[in-house]
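Question: Now follow the chain.
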Amino acid sequence: MTENAFVFDVAGAEQFEQLVVQNSLHKPVLVDFWAQWCAPCKVLMPLLEKITASYAGELLLAKVDCDVEQEIVALLGVQSLPTVVLFKDGKPVDGFTGAQTESDIRSLLSKHVAEPAEVAEDPLQTAKDLFDNGEYAQAEALLKELLSGDDQQPAALVLYARCLTERGALADAEAVLNSVTADEQKHAVAAARAQLAFLRQAVELPDIADLKTRLAKNANDDEAVLQLSIQQLARQNYEPALESLLQLFIRNRNFADGAAHATLLQVFELLGTEHPLVTLYRRRLYQALY
């Protein structure tokens, strides 16, 4: 998985169908076909991520590594890199090949996606952007300043707790979360508590290298699968963790009192209903259940 809820990697034709085709029925999805050896691809990708971020969730960006995903490449008939295809209403509607300027890309998108509204600079939004980009210390500093003037801002408090969690101040993070009682922040508090729980559990577990060694010897070591998933979740490595938890649920749903199912639901709460991975794995979990 890539950096945030609106930018993600696609692995395999099944994911392409779910994350690109199905998601495009709800909002446009820009698909970036790239490869490690392609220099123009490496120039274009950050620009596409920047443009996607400016649409604040009204546009998604899917990345397809062409060296790996030959089936998808053949399906779309991609012949040169970089190639970018815009999906809307379940089908490709526009696109381009080669490096393009930001203004050219925005011009293409304007025919299919509503322009993002101009908004005044908001310190809380700035802190959210910093957090999403992994700049936790900067986000924490900004939130500290924001809360020094008014410490009764529930959304800022929740994000501040997330920052504290990222630097390992788990007790302080819990104290901040305990101070948030606003109903509209219930989901955000639950998500922050889920991340906090994963980090706390991970401290008590074997390290990742030891768990991988166990699984290399026995791929059906259910305890090692669950523990490795927790370690991955604590590091926000969501996609492999979700896949392992789903396979564990399918193979042995009653293991550890249904821990795989319970953990999947925790991750869904953590990431939120709009996250592409939640869309994919909630559907797959439903299929496994019924």
Remarks:
- The two ends are 27 Å apart (CA to CA).
- The longest helix spans residues 186-203.
- Residues 123-202 form a domain with the Serine Threonine Protein Phosphatase 5, Tetratricopeptide repeat fold (CATH 1.25.40.10).
- The CA atoms of residues 15 and 173 lie 35 Å apart.
